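Q: My labmate handed me this sequence with no annotations at all. I'd like to see what the chain might look like in three dimensions before we decide whether it's worth expressing. Could you predict it?
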Amino acid sequence: MATNPKQAAKKAGDTTQGVEVIAKTDVFYRAGRQWGQTPIVVPLSELTEDQLQELRDEPLLIVRDVEIKPEEAPASS
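A: Here is what I predict for the chain of 77 residues:
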């Protein structure tokens, strides 16, 4: 059975791939989210391929790939 990529990094000690997004303006909306000048880290599992492409293609956003360590990952509700 194939492993769900959203659950693949759930093992203890594993990092999760994500993106850090910073807007070049005070407030900016893209991919169904609000961005600002404070960096926001989002796990890739929370974005669709289309949303990720929208972020990367937007000239008013700075998007960089990051690895999220388990202690940095937002707690699931």
